[in-house]
Each structure stands twice: as structure tokens, then as C-alpha cells.
Amino acid sequence: MIEVQNLHKSFGAVKAVEDVSFSARDGEITGLLGPNGAGKTTTLRMLYTLMKPERGRVLVDGRDAAADPLGVRRALGVLPDARGLYKRLTARENIEYFGRLHGLDEATLRRRCDALIAALDMAAIAGRRTEGFSQGERVKTAIARALVHDPKNLILDEPTNGLDVMATRAMREFLFGLRAEGRCVLFSSHIMQEVVALCDRVVVIAHGRVVADAAPQTLREQTGAASLEDAFVQIISRSETRAA
Amino acid sequence: MHAALTVFLKEVRENLRDRRTLINALLTGPLLAPVLFVVLINVQLHIELDKAGKPLPVPVVGAANAPNLVAALVQMGMVVKPAPRDPEAAVREQKADVVLRIPAGYAAHWRKGEPAEVELIYDSSRRDTHEDVSRLRAMVKRYAKIVGAQRLLVRGLSPALASPLVAADRDQATPQARGALIFSMLPYFFVLTAFLGGMYLAIDTTAGERERQSLEPLFANPVPRRRILLGKLAATTAFALVSLALSVVAFAVAGRFIDTSRLDMVLDLGAHFATFVLLLMLPLVLLLAALQTLVAAFAKSYREAQTYLSLLMFVPVLPSVLLIVVPVKAQLWMYAVPLLGQQLGIMQLVRGEALGAASVAACLAGTALAALLAILATMRVYASERLAISG
Which of B210, B216, B232 to substitute to test the interface with A, most A CBs within 10 Å? Predict the structure, then answer.
């Protein structure tokens, strides 16, 4: 369970995030949808305590990120926008490194690695150095790394970015699997179809503000638009008029 | 397992797989300097020792004005060469090292018993000709002394009358100390080796990691950033230490290839020397690692960090140069100054002197304190929000 309350963050004169509030529930996939530069990545970075909000609060399973950043990080699995694998280490060594930093003992670590490598269909690449990996192979490795400590909550920044159709489908199935296990999955995207295909709830962000927060179906009904894409365009342009 | 240890092991493993780092830290750095050193010193020894016994060719202007003088100089090893038309120009243009000019009035002065003059034309700013000039000057002086003594004897006086005072040289330099002059760059080589040994890791673990965008996922782990930093510092320090140890061993081996007997000096780069060098350098290696990491943390890319650190590399040469240009008597406080303390301590070891406990303590404590401050400063930079953001 991730709760975000009135987050503010600015870089110099630029207000990147203004009064963002939403919550992502366990056993649901929540999509953070918005155009490029809307403040999605900044919001997520405040969730996994890489950045400190100027105002507002982040609660993960009831823990306050400002008071207990290490506890929050322990409860989170994070796939940042920057995948950042170590290219001189093998895929498995990359996963193990983060597992050890999470304090897993060697037996648990081996079990978790084997399970993730099987679940993500990575057996063929696990022993290879990540230098020269395809985009899909890189994302898989980074996701396995994010899940190595079996976190209850998962934050994914643009998880399907750069993936081909097959890889995207596999990723969807994998995320549904995580939902079925009762985890809280929060992911960001600027791609409409993806949100429709995946999300139980959509939080739309534009210009650093939340402009809509509902189920995809509800959003469509609220705006009276035929498709979610139309609804999205309507919501965004309405907010632009308001901002201007 | 402790998080810092995990980071340390991962950085070591990753960098052991990087050929560039390995070559620089474990091959070029530690081995190039000793080899260069042996070659340079042997070449220098050859030049100096060969010159001393060799005939000295000197262009002589007006040799006909003083046939006796020229004959005496030739007996002492001078070889008369034809005179250039313009001796001053020949020396300036480096066509001649030194020219002897005997003026036309030489014979007249000589006959009257007045001091006759000969001119040595040379360029004192050319260091390579010092040897020739002083040899020629010594020959002329020796001839003058012989003739002066003969003149006194002819007049029935003892030549001893003309030298009421004699300064006798009693050089107290130990054979090691004589070698020390040549080896005053040795401490710098050690510092440089440690610097190069850690440099690639310092860059790779901060600027490199940031450029590859892996710092952001790394910081999402439930580990305080200072622990991550400590692991990285430990890895950088370890590489620098291994590099330094290899260098010290290489110098010990290289020392055997320097023909010190011809120099009348003793050179001991053995186990005792190696142990103390490593001890004195230990806190300095830590200080260098922290400074390198600090500088690399400010750089946006690998390349930028490399540029900054190449500039930083020239700082450690300062104490070496300073002590060569302005030789000072070592005071205790100087040992507490990082770099300077190591320079003084290692030079003492080269000279074969025992290191005082107070000096060693001052050196270790002073540099360790500086290292601690550098680590704290680096921790502050590591804690900053923008460090992890690469995009």
C-alpha cells in the first residue's frame, strides 16, 4: 500500500510536482499516466526516497518515508527509469548484488534468484555479462533485481519502454502475476494502450498535478468519451486551459 | 553480510574484469616507474663516469701564444681542436661546450711575472657542459700552481709559504646519503603509483556509475549512502595499496640492477625499507582515494572526472620539487603535513637513517586526520540529492 499526500517538489523556478496525492492499493495495478515531463519520474523518485519532497508525505505500508527511509526502501521494489546494470557483471551477479545489499542470506538469495530467473524466463542469459544485452533482457534483469527481496510493493518507471510486442506481452503477464500474489504495483507510463490493458486504476498527471484518479472505465464515463485515449486528451487539454 | 563489504567485493570483482583498470593499476603504474628509474640512473652513471676518464677536446684560440701551457694541458688530457672563428657565438649556438682563449698579451705578462690571463668561454646555463668546464678550469689551476711553486723555489722560498691555510674535506655523508640525492624523486614515484592505482576505481565507482545510471537503483537499496561510499573507498584504497606494494617490490628488484659500487654509495630498498614505506603511505593512500572520489563525484561523466584527476595528479609532485629546490632541515611538524611527511620519511629511509618514533607518529596521525576530513567531505557530497540523478 502506497499513499501519497500533497507532494510538492520544485527545481529552481520550475515546479515539477504540485500537490500530488493518490494511493496505490494492495492487489491492484495502479497506473501513473501523463505526458512526457508531467512530473511522473520526480513523483516516483520521492516515493523511493531518492528525493526529498518540499512538502507532503509518502507512506508505504504505513511507514513515513521521511522518518524511516530505510524501512520504506526495504518494503519497495524499484525499477527506475535508468535501468543501470553493471555490464561487467553477469545478470545473476547483478541480481545477487542487490539481494546482498538487502541483507538476504545466501540460501534465501539462491532460492530467490532461481525463482526469478525461472519466472522471467532468463535461464539462457543469467550467466552472461550484461554488456550487449537487448533492451528486453536488460529490463528483465532490472526487474528481477528489483524483486529479489520479495517486496510487497513495486514501483516501475516506464517498464515497457523500448520493449517489442512479445516482450511487452510477457511483461504484462508477469505484472498480472504480481497482482494475483496480492502485491501493490505502481507503474508509470505515457502509453495509453498499456494503461488500458493493465490498470485497475489510473492516476493522470499533467503539469505536476493530479488531474484525474479513477478506474479506466469510470474515466471514460466521466468524460463521455468513446475511448480512453479520447478521455485522456480531454482531461489533459482541460487542465491546460485551467493552467493557462 | 555487512553492506559496505558487499559493495567492496562487488567493486573489486567488477574492476578485476576491466582490462584497462588492471593494466593501469597493476602493470603500468607499479612497473613502469622502476624500469624507467633503473634506465635513467644507469645512463646518468655512464655519462658521468665515462667523462671523467676521457680526453677532453677543447677548441683553443691563440694556442701559439702559450705553447708551454698548451703542452701541459695536453699532458693532463686535453685535446686541442681548431678554434672557431667566433668562439662566443660557437658556445651560444652550442657548437662548442667550452673554448679556451689565450690572448696575444699572454707571453708579455708571463715574462714580466704578472698574472697572465686565459679565458674560458662557456655557457653556465647549459648543465651538460659543467663537467667539461670544471675539468678544464682544474687543469689550468693545477698548471698555475706548479709554475708558482717552481718560481718560489727558484727564489729560494718554500712553496708552502704561498698556502698558509688549507681546508681539508671530511665528508660525513654516509654511502647511502650520497645516493639519496639521485633518489629524491623516489617518494614521488610511490605517491604517483598509489594515485594511478586508485584513480580508475575512484572514477568508475562514482562518475562512471553515475554515467551508466546505476547509482539511482543502487541508492534505492535499504543501505545508508555512507556505507555504500565506505565500500567504494575501501575498494579504491585496496587497488591503490596493491599497486603501491607491487611498485615497492619492483623497486627492491630494480635496485639490484643499479651498479651502486661505481657511485661509492649504498642503496637499500629491501624488506625494512619496503615495510616502512607501506606504513607511511597507508594513510596517504586513504586520503588520495577520498580526494579522488570527492573530485569524481563532482564530475558529470567519466571523461570529465578523468580530466579533473589528471590535474590533481600534479599536486603530489610539489613537496618533491620543493625539497629539491629549497632544501630545508626537517622539523617535526613537517612530518604531520600529508605528502611532505611521506617525502621526508621515505628520504630518511633511503639515506639509511633510523626513523624516529615521533616522526612516524606525526606522519601517520597528520595524514590520517586529513584522510578523515576528506572522507567526511565526500560523505556530505554523497548525501546530496543531485548526486544520484544522471538524467
Answer: B216
Q: Are strands B98-101 and B78-81 parallel, antiparallel or unpaired?
A: unpaired
B391·A70 Cβ contact <8 A = no
pLDDT in tens, B97-127: 899 999 988 988 888 888 888 999 999 888 7
Instruction: Please give, rounded to a whole number of angstroms, the shortest distance from the CA of A43 to a CA of chain B.
Output: 14
Cα dihedral B127/B132/B135/B139 (nearest 10): -140
Pair A33, A195: CB distance under 8 Å: yes
Residues A133-183 pLDDT 10s:
998 899 999 999 999 999 999 999 988 887 888 888 888 899 999 999 999
Tell me the percentage of chain A whose pLDDT exceeds 90.
Answer: 62
pTM exceeds 0.90, yes or no: no
Whether pLDDT at B275 is above 70: yes
CA B48 remoteness from chain centre:
18
Report helix, strand or coil for B25: helix
Under 8 Å CB pairs connecting chains A and B tally to: 82
Query: Nearest CA to CA, how far is B236 from chain A (Å)?
Result: 17
Q: Left if phi > 0, otherwise alpha if psi is -120 to 50, otherwise beta: which for A155?
A: beta
pLDDT tens digits along A201-240? 999 898 888 888 888 888 777 777 767 777 777 777 777 6
Rounded to a whole number of angstroms, the distance between the first and last alpha carbons of chain A is 35
ipTM of the complex: 0.92
Burial class (CB in 10 A: 0-12, 13-18, 19+), B45: middle
Question: Would the CB atoms of A87 and B17 count as touching at under 8 Å?
Answer: no
Q: Does B384 touch chain A (CB under 8 A)?
A: no
Please give the helix or strand (H or E) that residue B245 lies within, else none. helix B225-255
- Write out chain B residues lying below 8 Å of A70, CB-based: 222-224
Nearest to B206 by CA among B285, B311, B294, B284: B294
Alpha-carbon distance of B322 to B315, in angstroms, equals 12
Contact A54, A210 (CB under 8 A): no
pLDDT at residue number B19:
87
